[in-house]
Amino acid sequence: MKIINEARLIFPSLSANESFARSAASCFAAQLDPTLEELGDIRTAVSEAVTNAIVHGYPDTLGDIVLRLRLLEGRVLEIQVKDKGVGIPDVEKARKPLFTTGGEERSGMGFTIMESFMDGIRVRSAPGKGTSVTLRKQVSPRMRG
Amino acid sequence: MAEERRAGPARMEVRLTGEIDHHRAGELMRELEDRLDLEAPREVELDLSGVGFMDSSGIALLIRVYRALALTGGTMLVTRVPKQPGKVLRAAGLSRLFPISYQ
Q1: CATH class name, domain A3-138
Q2: Which of A34, A54, A79, B33 is the most exposed place for a label (fewest CB within 10 A)?
Q3: Could you tell me which residues of chain A have a Cβ less than 8 Å from any Cβ in chain B?
């Protein structure tokens, strides 16, 4: 799909950047004039992906997270969250509802929420090399008065 | 921040405000646990009307409060949930654990 617009942000895996990342994605998405619900879905999915990178990608260190925002043709928003952290040994298992290695502070629902709030998700991970999560959502056209 | 309104000896009402994400959830949980320990309520109402954003960190938070209360036979309910947090709670199926009412 043709790329119409693109932005990249790089920030350290500090939890304060969770709200920054979802605000940035929300601002980028604004050019599609999404509904409040669509904007909420995007903010939630970005929050989940970035929190995963912070909590699970870099459990004991600080590392860089790359947030790549793309507007593709057909009103498709593509969001990629990439880390160079520890990676996920078994992606299929990690995506199962309620599975978590994060203890009682985590619900194990992050991937389930990303899947149900976005149209598509692709997870690539290699132990020791990092993880990338790519999310796509088509934003509905709005009627103009 | 979480502000507390006393509503009788056995009942505790807490109104949660702001954005509940992983950055904030730890501190909020400690605050709630302190209050639960201090008051030992039989019933807790968590009013979410002031929550502008919540992700799965909020799910974990609510489940922890529910479990802490269940240990002493207490119950909880979640009320006045706005749209975005409501969608997250529905996706997690939390109404199987405690009553939830939406805005």
Answers
A1: alpha beta
A2: B33
A3: 15-16, 18-19, 22, 36-37, 40-41, 43-44, 47-48, 51, 54-55, 104-107, 109-110, 112-113, 116-117
